[in-house]
Write a structure and sequence with these properties.
The chain is mostly helical. It has eleven helices and no strands. Helix 1 packs across helix 2, helix 3 crosses helix 4 and helix 4 packs parallel to helix 8. The chain is flat and about 65 Å long.
Length: about 210
């Protein structure tokens, strides 16, 4: 094991590589090069790329949990989920290809898993079944992942082609015979406002379903 090489340093280096080159740039070799070591030196901590991605995803969840720990214990479960959704999206957006990279990763730190215990306890204490609590959390997570993947992919495409999503070009292509379709293009609005609006719909549905 290379002297001074820790899991934390490896993850930090991997996140830096991700931010510079995207998910395809993240390999054990590129991370090792950033740390000025050879790839085999990483194997003690991360035996393969999937394990490295798991460690990166765990770090993101660790950061999310740190912010959630500050949420008052008497916060309604729907509002706690709203806060969670906002924090998760922020963490994903902080890294290139963040949502695509971190979704589906396995949590490797038992402490990050155990940090969910108080939340599940509060929500089941508020009347939700454990299954309902998990379904609600997973639905919100899926919404954040899907929304943010689309958001990041569009941003990257637009960076290379500023006119790719031109509303004026869309209006011209649609023509005058489909006014509602044309209006729908203008109604999308700001990504932050759209995220909040759609999250409101999702949480209202969950509240109506689970009470």
């Amino acid at each position: 094991m290379a002297k001074g090489l820790t899991r934390e340093r490896i993850v930090d280096a991997a996140l830096a590589v991700l931010d510079e080159g995207g998910i395809d740039a993240v390999t054990l070799r590129t991370v090792a090069a950033r740390l000025d070591v050879r790839a085999p030196a990483l194997y003690w901590h991360v035996p393969n790329k999937q394990h490295l991605l798991d460690e990166m995803g765990t770090e993101i969840q660790r950061r999310v949990q740190a912010v959630l720990a500050e949420v008052p214990a008497d916060t309604a479960w729907t509002e706690a989920l709203r806060t969670y959704a906002g924090i998760l999206r922020t963490e994903y957006l902080a890294h290139r290809d963040g949502a695509r990279t971190f979704s589906g990763t396995r949590l490797t730190d038992p402490d990050v898993l155990r940090a969910q215990e108080p939340w599940l306890g509060r929500w089941t204490g508020a009347g939700l079944t454990l299954r309902d609590a998990m379904d609600a959390a997973e639905l919100v997570t899926s919404y954040v992942v899907g929304f943010t993947i689309e958001e990041q992919e569009r941003a990257q495409s637009e960076a290379s082609d500023p006119e790719r999503y031109s509303i004026a070009a869309r209006d011209a292509a649609v023509g005058p015979d489909a006014p509602l379709v044309a209006e729908a293009g203008h109604a999308r609005g700001d990504a932050n406002a759209r995220f909040a609006r759609q999250l409101d719909l999702l949480l209202a549905g969950l509240a109506a379903r689970f009470g």
